[in-house]
């Protein structure tokens, strides 16, 4: 039985608590958080505390907290011989104190509202300072997802950067698209099938090959018309920047 303590009460902690506490080979022995209110979600199923000095003995301590807090909280913990890991994509393992066994357990997925059954193909990226700790993290990660990858801190921060482009920036473009629809009395639901098809295509072919649109085919007439339609300088700037990037990517083919 692998004993796990969770430190943090946000989306990642709630997700890990749900998945791991349902596994017969894992015992969540404690959840620590900053407030009693935040700990209510966990109180009925395990021990909880707002005092880091009351931390219970475990095999693995998972820091599922904000990036900014990881270093400070990690250095304040007294965990004996346990393995201390964080879950952040952009933070190096070395932010954790060298005096403890340390590692990283990074789920490469946006976890806001995701259901555990949707985790089956999500990569869990792990890193550890010792080979024996890699084995522990591999075991723990496989309780979450069958896809486990050894990724070092430099690779992980670039993976996180790529994820921001693929997920966060694309979602912001969806928001801008919805604003254009709303401003002109068009139902954004009409765009949703296009979004679905775009994402389906990129799962089966390279993003390079999947690109379409006026910038891809060098249709300057359509692009000029779009720029005339855009009243917002901010949207014009974004449109021009992305169109230029696409044209630069496919310049030799246009």
Automatic annotation (TrEMBL):
Gene3D superfamilies of this UniProt entry?
NAD(P)-binding Rossmann-like Domain, ProC-like, C-terminal domain
Record-annotated DUF2520 domain positions: 122-246
**Would you tell me the protein name for this molecule?**
DUF2520 domain-containing protein
**Organism encoding this protein:** Muriicola jejuensis
